[in-house]
Amino acid sequence: MFLREIGRAAAWLLMVFALLAALSIAATRAVYAAPEAADPTAIQAEELQGFLPNQGDTHYLGLESAGAVKMIVLTLKSWTPEGLPVAERLQFAVLTEEGLLAMLSGAAPHEAAIATGRLLRASEDGVISQAIVLAGESAGYTVVVWNESAAPVSYALTARNGVLIDGSGQTAQEPAPAQQDDAYPLISAFAQTATLTEERVFQAAPAFVDETPFTVSKDTVTAYRISGSLFQLYDRHFLDLIPARRDAEITVRLSYDSGFQQTTDGKVNFWVLTKNGLQQVMQGAFPNELNLAAGQPAEDGRPGVMQATLRIGGEGPYTLIVFNDSTAPVAYTLTVEGALLADTFGQTNEAKAAAAEFAAEEATTSTGANPLAAISRRP
Q1: Angle at which helices 2-32 and 97-104 pack, to 10 degrees?
Q2: Higher local confidence (pLDDT), 1 or 95
């Protein structure tokens, strides 16, 4: 009799665990699913605002890439009510469906994530952290934001080249409170100057240079010389660096212009990372602690020129990150010797021009000359 009761109790426990597991998976799919499949009234925006009043409070947001660009930059700005300690403990992580299931099964978010927030700036006024997501085969991701501090925290999460999705009313889409501009004077200063300088910056970095050979495919532009613009504070461009041969000596030269030289000096440069180094950066490590090389001022003292020479022992892959940690928009030109640069994320002027050419080619019904023939050259 006693054994029979134990068996019944065990059966009930198994049913309860099965129900909890089913609810957990259902919740996961609800968070992860595309908004049209889950809730047509879900908020979809490039930026969402949230409030986490208690320690341990967590928000789950969907994330999808927007358009053809496969690199998503997530920036989290957080602040606390006046007089309370700065919330350096507001964390966020990006998970695939498998990673979210692992987290719901007990794994720590940063262990299950494909990318986690890296602290960029902390002051008495607030905190800025950032994560990079190199979008792959997955149709979407989940961003988990949680509060590890004892203070109530407000936040604004922005996804460049991505769309944030809230299907359960956790966040708002309203603009950030007025005091946030005061909390981030550098960002406010940038916002006031960006519209005045954006057109001039684009003109300063021509899309193509006749003497520079490059090849174009639908998803990749490869060249010895490439150009682009970094308009915002903490903007980054991620480029593949392809050595010409094993043990190649490579020289990288970065030339940039902003019109605000005093603002950008020492804050615009590049890093070279191994594949393992890039993975660690995506998990929150600091690139300057892992880089194989970073630019040094030109020997002749010319402003706006950073250069590095390095010898790479293997064939790669390697990643070159061009970064702007200033509040001024910057146009740059990057030149390499002993290697090639490749843009697979549509970030540079050359990649954007090539994408427009391919779009025009696909749209036309003509069977005449290939419009890419005029711009495709092989090194």
Answers
A1: 140
A2: 95
State the fold for domain 197-363. Jelly Rolls (2.60.120)
pLDDT, position 288: 82
Identical fold between 31-172 and 197-363: yes
208 Cβ contact list (under 8 Å, min separation 6): 349, 350, 353, 375
* Average pLDDT of the segment spanning 323-342: 91
Answer left, alpha or beta for residue 126, where phi above 0 means left and psi between -120 and 50 means alpha: left
CATH class of 31-172: mainly beta
Contact indicator for 205, 227 with CB cutoff of 8 Å = yes
Going 243 to 343 to 159 to 26, the CA torsion angle's sign is negative
* pLDDT tens-place string over residues 147-187: 988 889 999 999 988 899 998 899 876 544 443 333 333 33
For 199-218, the pLDDT digits (tens) are 333 333 333 333 445 566 66
By the 8 A CB rule, do 205 and 349 touch?
A: yes
Within 78-163, where are the H helices?
A: 97-104, 109-112
Cα gap 94→110, rounded to integer Å: 9
Handedness of CA 212, 223, 272, 133 (dihedral sign): positive
Domain parsing of the chain, residue ranges: 31-172, 197-363
Please write the tens of the pLDDT for every residue from 285-331: 788 888 888 999 988 778 889 999 998 876 667 999 999 988 888 99
Interatomic CA distance for residues 290 and 9, integer angstroms: 55
Tokens of residue 305, six digits: 């020129």
* Residues 40, 167 contacting (CB under 8 angstroms): no
The pLDDT assigned to 137 comes to 55
Only one residue has tokens 């010389």, namely: 225
36 burial (CB, 10 Å; 0-12 / 13-18 / 19+) is exposed
Say which amino acid occupies 38. Answer: A
**What ranges in the chain are assigned the alpha helix state H?**
2-32, 35-38, 97-104, 109-112, 179-183, 185-204, 261-264, 275-282, 349-363
Q: Alpha-carbon distance 346 to 72, whole Å?
A: 12
End-to-end Cα, the chain, rounded Å: 84
